[in-house]
Design a protein that fits this description.
The chain is an alpha/beta fold. The chain has two domains: 243 residues, Dihydropteroate synthase-like (TIM Barrel, Alpha-Beta Barrel); 90 residues, Sulfite Reductase Hemoprotein, domain 1 (2-Layer Sandwich), CATH 3.30.413. It is built from twelve helices and 15 strands. Strands 3-4-5-6-7-8-9-10 form an eight-stranded parallel beta barrel, surrounded by six helices. The structure holds iron/sulfur cluster. Iron/sulfur cluster binds next to helix 11.
Protein backbone atom coordinates (compact mmCIF):
# COMPACT_ATOMS: atom_id res chain seq x y z
CA UNK A 1 0.00 0.00 0.00
CA UNK A 2 1.48 3.27 -1.10
CA UNK A 3 0.29 6.09 1.16
CA UNK A 4 -3.41 6.89 1.22
CA UNK A 5 -2.96 10.60 1.75
CA UNK A 6 -1.34 12.94 -0.75
CA UNK A 7 0.82 16.00 -0.30
CA UNK A 8 0.70 18.90 -2.79
CA UNK A 9 4.01 20.59 -3.54
CA UNK A 10 3.46 23.41 -6.06
CA UNK A 11 1.61 21.49 -8.81
CA UNK A 12 3.13 18.13 -7.92
CA UNK A 13 1.32 15.51 -5.87
CA UNK A 14 3.23 13.07 -3.69
CA UNK A 15 1.61 9.89 -2.44
CA UNK A 16 -1.64 8.12 -3.26
CA UNK A 17 -1.79 6.83 -6.82
CA UNK A 18 0.83 9.29 -8.07
CA UNK A 19 4.17 8.09 -9.45
CA UNK A 20 7.03 7.73 -6.99
CA UNK A 21 8.82 11.09 -7.08
CA UNK A 22 12.59 11.51 -7.41
CA UNK A 23 14.43 14.09 -5.34
CA UNK A 24 17.91 15.42 -4.97
CA UNK A 25 19.61 18.08 -2.89
CA UNK A 26 21.74 20.86 -4.32
CA UNK A 27 25.36 20.23 -3.41
CA UNK A 28 26.65 23.79 -2.87
CA UNK A 29 25.82 26.99 -1.06
CA UNK A 30 23.57 29.33 -3.01
CA UNK A 31 25.15 32.38 -1.40
CA UNK A 32 27.06 34.40 -4.02
CA UNK A 33 26.36 31.65 -6.54
CA UNK A 34 25.51 32.27 -10.18
CA UNK A 35 21.74 31.86 -10.29
CA UNK A 36 21.63 31.36 -14.08
CA UNK A 37 23.94 28.35 -13.70
CA UNK A 38 21.80 26.89 -10.91
CA UNK A 39 18.56 27.39 -12.84
CA UNK A 40 20.04 25.79 -15.95
CA UNK A 41 21.30 22.83 -13.89
CA UNK A 42 17.82 22.42 -12.41
CA UNK A 43 16.43 22.31 -15.96
CA UNK A 44 18.85 19.53 -16.88
CA UNK A 45 18.04 17.59 -13.70
CA UNK A 46 14.36 17.90 -14.50
CA UNK A 47 14.95 16.51 -18.00
CA UNK A 48 16.80 13.60 -16.38
CA UNK A 49 13.75 12.73 -14.29
CA UNK A 50 14.19 14.70 -11.08
CA UNK A 51 10.91 15.98 -9.61
CA UNK A 52 11.98 18.08 -6.61
CA UNK A 53 15.17 19.77 -5.50
CA UNK A 54 16.14 20.79 -1.98
CA UNK A 55 18.46 23.60 -0.96
CA UNK A 56 20.09 24.38 2.37
CA UNK A 57 18.58 27.57 3.74
CA UNK A 58 21.17 28.30 6.40
CA UNK A 59 20.89 32.03 7.05
CA UNK A 60 18.84 35.09 6.16
CA UNK A 61 21.46 35.87 3.53
CA UNK A 62 20.13 32.91 1.54
CA UNK A 63 16.76 34.66 1.18
CA UNK A 64 17.48 36.63 -2.01
CA UNK A 65 19.17 33.89 -4.04
CA UNK A 66 16.59 31.37 -2.83
CA UNK A 67 13.68 33.62 -3.92
CA UNK A 68 15.22 34.00 -7.35
CA UNK A 69 15.75 30.24 -7.71
CA UNK A 70 12.22 29.46 -6.48
CA UNK A 71 10.77 31.90 -9.00
CA UNK A 72 12.72 30.50 -11.94
CA UNK A 73 12.91 26.78 -11.12
CA UNK A 74 11.01 24.44 -13.42
CA UNK A 75 10.47 22.05 -10.53
CA UNK A 76 9.28 22.59 -6.96
CA UNK A 77 11.99 23.76 -4.59
CA UNK A 78 12.39 22.66 -0.99
CA UNK A 79 14.20 24.58 1.74
CA UNK A 80 16.14 22.58 4.29
CA UNK A 81 15.98 24.21 7.71
CA UNK A 82 17.89 23.42 10.84
CA UNK A 83 17.14 24.87 14.28
CA UNK A 84 15.85 28.39 13.53
CA UNK A 85 12.08 28.64 13.06
CA UNK A 86 12.47 32.18 11.68
CA UNK A 87 14.48 30.79 8.76
CA UNK A 88 11.68 28.30 8.07
CA UNK A 89 9.12 31.10 7.90
CA UNK A 90 11.46 33.23 5.80
CA UNK A 91 12.01 30.37 3.34
CA UNK A 92 8.25 29.96 2.96
CA UNK A 93 7.91 33.70 2.33
CA UNK A 94 10.68 33.39 -0.27
CA UNK A 95 8.68 30.86 -2.26
CA UNK A 96 9.75 27.49 -0.86
CA UNK A 97 7.15 25.03 -2.12
CA UNK A 98 8.03 22.77 0.77
CA UNK A 99 10.29 23.01 3.78
CA UNK A 100 12.03 20.17 5.49
CA UNK A 101 12.23 20.49 9.26
CA UNK A 102 12.83 18.28 12.25
CA UNK A 103 10.46 19.77 14.86
CA UNK A 104 12.74 18.34 17.56
CA UNK A 105 15.50 20.68 16.35
CA UNK A 106 13.26 23.72 16.09
CA UNK A 107 12.92 23.89 19.88
CA UNK A 108 9.86 25.18 21.74
CA UNK A 109 6.49 23.87 20.62
CA UNK A 110 5.15 27.35 19.79
CA UNK A 111 7.97 27.88 17.28
CA UNK A 112 6.98 24.81 15.25
CA UNK A 113 3.35 25.92 15.53
CA UNK A 114 4.25 29.27 13.94
CA UNK A 115 6.09 27.54 11.10
CA UNK A 116 3.11 25.28 10.48
CA UNK A 117 0.75 28.27 10.53
CA UNK A 118 2.89 30.04 7.92
CA UNK A 119 2.92 26.96 5.67
CA UNK A 120 -0.84 26.66 6.06
CA UNK A 121 -1.46 30.33 5.22
CA UNK A 122 0.75 30.15 2.14
CA UNK A 123 -0.53 26.75 0.96
CA UNK A 124 2.86 25.06 1.14
CA UNK A 125 4.04 21.62 2.23
CA UNK A 126 6.24 20.41 5.08
CA UNK A 127 8.44 17.38 5.29
CA UNK A 128 8.98 16.14 8.82
CA UNK A 129 12.50 14.84 8.40
CA UNK A 130 13.86 12.65 11.16
CA UNK A 131 17.32 11.16 11.22
CA UNK A 132 18.32 8.36 13.56
CA UNK A 133 21.09 10.63 14.82
CA UNK A 134 18.81 13.46 15.95
CA UNK A 135 15.99 12.02 18.00
CA UNK A 136 14.41 13.11 21.29
CA UNK A 137 15.26 11.44 24.60
CA UNK A 138 14.45 7.75 24.46
CA UNK A 139 12.34 7.61 27.64
CA UNK A 140 10.50 4.40 26.73
CA UNK A 141 13.74 2.66 25.79
CA UNK A 142 12.56 1.95 22.24
CA UNK A 143 14.74 0.67 19.43
CA UNK A 144 15.84 3.37 16.98
CA UNK A 145 13.29 2.58 14.29
CA UNK A 146 10.38 2.60 16.77
CA UNK A 147 11.60 5.81 18.36
CA UNK A 148 11.73 7.49 14.94
CA UNK A 149 8.24 6.29 14.03
CA UNK A 150 6.65 7.22 17.38
CA UNK A 151 8.28 10.65 17.23
CA UNK A 152 7.04 11.26 13.68
CA UNK A 153 3.50 10.19 14.64
CA UNK A 154 3.53 12.62 17.58
CA UNK A 155 4.62 15.46 15.30
CA UNK A 156 1.91 14.55 12.78
CA UNK A 157 -0.69 14.65 15.58
CA UNK A 158 0.56 18.12 16.55
CA UNK A 159 0.36 19.30 12.94
CA UNK A 160 -3.18 17.93 12.59
CA UNK A 161 -4.25 19.60 15.85
CA UNK A 162 -3.08 22.87 14.23
CA UNK A 163 -5.21 22.14 11.15
CA UNK A 164 -2.36 21.12 8.82
CA UNK A 165 -1.90 17.87 6.95
CA UNK A 166 -0.01 18.74 3.75
CA UNK A 167 2.87 16.71 5.10
CA UNK A 168 5.42 14.13 4.04
CA UNK A 169 7.58 12.16 6.48
CA UNK A 170 11.12 10.85 6.16
CA UNK A 171 12.80 8.50 8.61
CA UNK A 172 16.41 8.16 7.63
CA UNK A 173 19.30 6.18 9.00
CA UNK A 174 22.64 5.19 7.57
CA UNK A 175 21.91 1.66 8.83
CA UNK A 176 19.88 -0.15 6.18
CA UNK A 177 18.05 -2.40 8.68
CA UNK A 178 16.91 0.59 10.73
CA UNK A 179 15.73 2.30 7.52
CA UNK A 180 13.72 -0.78 6.54
CA UNK A 181 12.22 -1.29 10.02
CA UNK A 182 11.25 2.37 10.40
CA UNK A 183 9.62 2.61 6.97
CA UNK A 184 7.68 -0.63 7.37
CA UNK A 185 6.46 0.31 10.81
CA UNK A 186 5.47 3.81 9.75
CA UNK A 187 3.61 2.58 6.67
CA UNK A 188 1.63 0.13 8.81
CA UNK A 189 0.54 2.90 11.20
CA UNK A 190 0.09 6.01 9.07
CA UNK A 191 -1.57 7.14 5.85
CA UNK A 192 0.91 9.96 5.24
CA UNK A 193 3.31 9.88 2.26
CA UNK A 194 6.78 8.64 3.06
CA UNK A 195 10.05 9.84 1.57
CA UNK A 196 12.68 7.07 1.42
CA UNK A 197 16.44 7.33 1.54
CA UNK A 198 19.48 5.81 3.17
CA UNK A 199 21.39 8.73 4.61
CA UNK A 200 25.18 9.13 4.56
CA UNK A 201 25.11 6.30 2.07
CA UNK A 202 28.59 6.79 0.62
CA UNK A 203 30.18 6.93 -2.81
CA UNK A 204 28.24 6.35 -6.05
CA UNK A 205 28.87 2.60 -6.10
CA UNK A 206 28.37 1.93 -2.39
CA UNK A 207 25.32 4.16 -2.12
CA UNK A 208 23.69 2.76 -5.25
CA UNK A 209 24.00 -0.77 -3.88
CA UNK A 210 22.76 0.07 -0.38
CA UNK A 211 19.97 2.31 -1.66
CA UNK A 212 18.86 -0.20 -4.30
CA UNK A 213 18.59 -2.89 -1.66
CA UNK A 214 16.74 -0.78 0.90
CA UNK A 215 14.55 1.29 -1.41
CA UNK A 216 13.99 -1.58 -3.82
CA UNK A 217 12.67 -3.84 -1.06
CA UNK A 218 10.41 -1.15 0.35
CA UNK A 219 9.03 0.00 -2.99
CA UNK A 220 8.41 -3.61 -3.93
CA UNK A 221 6.25 -3.81 -0.79
CA UNK A 222 4.47 -0.64 -1.99
CA UNK A 223 6.08 1.47 0.73
CA UNK A 224 7.46 4.87 -0.20
CA UNK A 225 6.13 7.73 -2.29
CA UNK A 226 9.30 9.69 -3.00
CA UNK A 227 12.98 8.71 -2.99
CA UNK A 228 16.48 10.10 -2.93
CA UNK A 229 19.68 8.14 -3.49
CA UNK A 230 22.18 10.13 -1.43
CA UNK A 231 25.62 10.00 -3.04
CA UNK A 232 28.89 11.62 -2.05
CA UNK A 233 29.33 12.84 -5.59
CA UNK A 234 27.37 14.38 -8.44
CA UNK A 235 23.70 15.04 -7.85
CA UNK A 236 23.10 14.04 -11.48
CA UNK A 237 24.24 10.54 -10.45
CA UNK A 238 21.66 10.59 -7.64
CA UNK A 239 18.93 11.20 -10.20
CA UNK A 240 20.24 8.54 -12.60
CA UNK A 241 20.42 5.98 -9.77
CA UNK A 242 16.95 6.80 -8.41
CA UNK A 243 15.34 6.52 -11.83
CA UNK A 244 17.17 3.29 -12.53
CA UNK A 245 15.74 1.81 -9.31
CA UNK A 246 12.23 2.86 -10.36
CA UNK A 247 12.66 1.48 -13.89
CA UNK A 248 14.10 -1.79 -12.62
CA UNK A 249 11.06 -2.20 -10.37
CA UNK A 250 8.72 -1.36 -13.22
CA UNK A 251 7.55 1.78 -11.41
CA UNK A 252 8.71 4.06 -14.21
CA UNK A 253 8.31 3.45 -17.91
CA UNK A 254 10.19 4.86 -20.85
CA UNK A 255 13.46 6.74 -20.86
CA UNK A 256 16.79 5.65 -22.27
CA UNK A 257 18.19 2.30 -21.17
CA UNK A 258 21.95 2.46 -21.47
CA UNK A 259 23.71 -0.91 -21.62
CA UNK A 260 27.43 -1.41 -21.91
CA UNK A 261 29.71 -4.40 -21.78
CA UNK A 262 32.07 -4.91 -18.82
CA UNK A 263 35.04 -5.00 -21.28
CA UNK A 264 37.59 -7.75 -21.44
CA UNK A 265 41.01 -8.33 -22.99
CA UNK A 266 39.53 -7.84 -26.45
CA UNK A 267 38.57 -4.24 -25.88
CA UNK A 268 40.50 -1.55 -27.69
CA UNK A 269 37.68 0.98 -27.95
CA UNK A 270 37.48 3.33 -24.93
CA UNK A 271 33.91 2.38 -24.07
CA UNK A 272 34.31 3.43 -20.44
CA UNK A 273 35.03 7.05 -21.39
CA UNK A 274 32.30 6.90 -24.01
CA UNK A 275 29.74 5.83 -21.37
CA UNK A 276 30.84 8.66 -19.06
CA UNK A 277 30.32 11.16 -21.88
CA UNK A 278 27.03 9.79 -23.13
CA UNK A 279 25.22 8.88 -19.92
CA UNK A 280 24.10 12.32 -18.62
CA UNK A 281 22.98 13.42 -22.10
CA UNK A 282 21.17 10.18 -22.85
CA UNK A 283 19.38 10.28 -19.49
CA UNK A 284 17.93 13.68 -20.45
CA UNK A 285 16.30 12.37 -23.62
CA UNK A 286 12.57 11.84 -23.65
CA UNK A 287 12.81 8.59 -25.67
CA UNK A 288 11.99 4.99 -24.95
CA UNK A 289 15.07 3.33 -26.45
CA UNK A 290 18.04 1.10 -25.62
CA UNK A 291 21.54 2.32 -26.43
CA UNK A 292 24.52 -0.04 -26.20
CA UNK A 293 28.18 0.88 -25.91
CA UNK A 294 30.49 -2.08 -26.51
CA UNK A 295 34.23 -2.35 -26.09
CA UNK A 296 35.26 -4.26 -29.19
CA UNK A 297 34.41 -4.97 -32.77
CA UNK A 298 34.74 -8.73 -32.30
CA UNK A 299 31.65 -9.49 -30.23
CA UNK A 300 30.26 -5.99 -29.67
CA UNK A 301 27.96 -5.76 -32.70
CA UNK A 302 26.52 -9.22 -32.06
CA UNK A 303 26.02 -8.67 -28.33
CA UNK A 304 24.36 -5.30 -29.02
CA UNK A 305 22.12 -6.39 -31.85
CA UNK A 306 18.93 -6.05 -29.80
CA UNK A 307 19.69 -2.43 -28.93
CA UNK A 308 18.03 0.39 -30.86
CA UNK A 309 21.44 2.02 -31.27
CA UNK A 310 24.92 0.70 -30.58
CA UNK A 311 28.40 2.16 -30.61
CA UNK A 312 31.48 0.05 -30.78
CA UNK A 313 34.92 0.41 -32.26
CA UNK A 314 38.58 -0.43 -32.69
CA UNK A 315 41.04 2.06 -31.23
CA UNK A 316 39.95 5.51 -32.42
CA UNK A 317 37.65 4.13 -35.08
CA UNK A 318 33.98 3.84 -34.13
CA UNK A 319 30.96 2.12 -35.66
CA UNK A 320 27.37 3.18 -35.21
CA UNK A 321 24.57 0.63 -35.50
CA UNK A 322 20.80 1.01 -35.58
CA UNK A 323 18.74 -2.13 -34.88
CA UNK A 324 21.81 -4.25 -35.54
CA UNK A 325 22.62 -2.65 -38.93
CA UNK A 326 25.81 -0.66 -39.43
CA UNK A 327 24.78 2.87 -40.37
CA UNK A 328 27.99 4.86 -40.04
CA UNK A 329 31.74 4.54 -39.66
CA UNK A 330 33.09 7.42 -37.62
CA UNK A 331 35.87 8.32 -35.21
CA UNK A 332 35.78 8.34 -31.43
CA UNK A 333 35.78 12.17 -31.56
CA UNK A 334 32.53 12.52 -33.46
CA UNK A 335 30.82 9.40 -32.13
CA UNK A 336 28.72 11.35 -29.62
CA UNK A 337 27.29 13.75 -32.19
CA UNK A 338 26.72 10.96 -34.71
CA UNK A 339 24.79 8.92 -32.14
CA UNK A 340 22.57 11.82 -31.06
CA UNK A 341 21.91 12.82 -34.65
CA UNK A 342 20.85 9.27 -35.42
CA UNK A 343 18.57 9.18 -32.38
CA UNK A 344 17.01 12.54 -33.23
CA UNK A 345 16.37 11.50 -36.84
CA UNK A 346 15.44 7.99 -35.77
S1 LIG B 1 31.90 -6.74 -26.29
FE1 LIG B 1 34.04 -7.23 -26.69
S2 LIG B 1 35.18 -6.09 -25.13
FE2 LIG B 1 33.06 -6.14 -24.45
S3 LIG B 1 33.01 -7.93 -23.09
FE3 LIG B 1 32.30 -8.60 -25.13
S4 LIG B 1 34.16 -9.39 -26.07
FE4 LIG B 1 34.85 -8.14 -24.33
Amino acid sequence: MFSKKTCKVRDLFIGGDNPVRVQTMYDSSILNADIDTIVSRIGKLSAMGCDLIRFSFSSLEDANPFSEIAKRSVMPVVADIHFDYRLAIKALECGADKIRINPGNIGAHWKTKEVVAAAKDLGRAIRIGLNSGSLPKNEKNLDKASLMVDTALEYLDDFESWGFDNTVVSLKASDVDVTLDAARRFASLSDYPLHLGVTEAGSAIVSSVRSSWALGNLLDEHIGDTIRVSITGDIEDEVIAANEILRTLGLKKGGVRLVSCPRCGRHTFDSRRMVEILEPRLMSLDKDITVAVMGCQVNGPGEAKDADYALTGIGRKAFLYAKGELIKEITIDNAEEALFEAIENG
